Amino acid sequence: MTNTAKETKAQRVERLKREKNPWEGLEEIRRFARDGFTSIPPAWIGTYFRWWGVYTQGDGDGAIGGSNGEGKALPYFMVRLRIPNGLLQAHQLSTIADVTERYARGSADLTVRQNIQLHWVTIEALPELLDALWSVGLTTKGSCGDDTRNITGCPLAGVDAGEIFDASALALEASRFFVGNAEFYNLPRKFKICITGCRSWCAYPEINDIGLTAVTRRLRGHDETGFSLRVGGGLSTDPHLAARLNAFVRPDQVLPVLRGIAEIFRDSDVLRENRERARLKFLFLRHGWTVEDFQRELEKRLGFHLEPAVEEHPPNDVYRDHVGIHAQKQPGHYYVGAAVLRGRISATQMRAASELSTRFAGGEVRVTNMQNLLIVNVPRENVDSLARELTTAGLPVQGSAFWRGAVACSGSEFCKLAITETKTFSRWLVEELEERLPGFEQHLKLHVTGCPNSCGQHWIADIGIEGKKIKVGDRMQDAYYFCIGGAVGLHQSIARPVGYRCLATEVPDAIERLLRRYLEDRRPNENLRQFFARHSDTELREFLAGELMAAVLRDQPPGQLPHGIEG
């Protein structure tokens, strides 16, 4: 009897991956460029392009304008550039500025994984763009798709006066190993790695599939540096903070450990059955794995036992957007951090940052996880001139707590999954809060995400707002649901959905009420996280609304979640 059962989404994607390694399809991409957009088959549009950091761009209406939770696509592409550890040379940033101007209408976005993302790219321009990037040592490979995404780390690696270890070389080595590696092109879904040697964990190891954080132990009278190991972190609709293994990982063991964990993930067939539950974290959330189970399986693949974990010191309420002027470990040198509001940056600004980094420093630029830019190795005598010229270019090295703390995903402007527009909204929100609360100095992570996928990382924000729709009359209007009190580090916590939702136009009112209540009622030296932690959801909801009100439930995402979208 013939089996006529329809292929599920997961089965279709798994079949397509078995049939082709997309990284072997460069000549097909060049042919599509010659023959035009209509020549591209659905398998490339919906699946294979993502391994090249490419997916179709939404039409501006987001998910609401389509069906099954995904909006309509234009014949244009988003192209995401892979920037391991956020490290760039001035000439590379200049090339990115050039291709942004030439192929992407002059505008780019810095993402929460230290990538740079372009929009409005045509299929005809794609090979030229890729060639230009390759000519300066940059690639888009693996910045989307079911593979190892951009490997993140502290953007101050090598210059941070307080770092435990410069882990950037390990991040770059790992990136070289995984990018284009046919053994790991077909993972169940995306796979995120963070390797950091800083004390503040600014690259958020807690929310990665693998988080390696530097630690020091005393062994036979000598200090030895290695890494703590966490696995299974991730956000989206089922946020899960990574679990720490009982392991001390020496630097020479990092790559074998990364490979071993990637193999566990790759070989977990149970994770291939449902695209929405295919991340490594679901071994813990859905399939009964424990930390001990995971470590046993890892050590079996390694062929040796990892040494026991040592005491570590997670950062205690450290806020680190890297904005401003700060001394480096190198005497007489500073790094200068520019606040890029909501991560939106123009080709002109990138070119200015490139030129200024060469004129006033050593030609090194770095991208942060809070969507900012740094210039490092600035001699003391050049600091003021550099800061002044960056500010003139629209990249201020100072800014309000709202300007510095705002993070935003792509939103419905470009993303087919988004429910709300985020970038223009975030700028307006910041301007409103600056006017309403002048002089507010408390560090604040204010994250805006346009749908439940958490590309804007609202689950780890002090104030995280998630895009929704509310019907007003006969029209659906943008709205936001509030999640309060997220944190990483010593007091790690997923933000609490407090049951308050309002129209986008009312968000400044709600945040103003909440922050004024904080200013009025805070205890001596009490920061925002501590204030939120000692109040109930009911109280926080009242602060936001200005009155007692019943909780509103979070809506579930409209339809299934596609597999290639995130920061």
Describe this structure in words.
Mean pLDDT is 95; it is low at 557-567. The longest helix has 15 residues, at 507-521. The protein has 16 helices and 19 strands. It has helices spanning 9-19, 26-35, 42-46, 90-103, 126-134, 168-178, 254-266, 282-285, 291-302, 347-360, 383-392, 401-405, 423-436, 507-521, 528-533, 537-545, and strands spanning 54-58, 73-81, 87-89, 107-110, 116-121, 193-196, 210-219, 222-231, 243-244, 324-327, 333-338, 344-346, 364-367, 373-379, 406-408, 446-449, 463-472, 475-484, 496-503. The strands form four sheets. A five-stranded antiparallel sheet has the order 1-2-5-4-12. Strand 13 (364-367) and strand 14 form a beta hairpin.
Helix content range of the residues, please? 25-40%
* Strand arrangement across the biggest beta sheet: 1-2-5-4-12
The global form is globular
Mean pLDDT: 95
The overall strand count is: 19
Proportion of beta-strand residues: 15-25%
Structural class: alpha+beta
Radius of gyration: 23 Å
Q: List low-pLDDT spans.
A: 557-567
Largest sheet: 5 strands, antiparallel
Distance between the termini: 46 Å
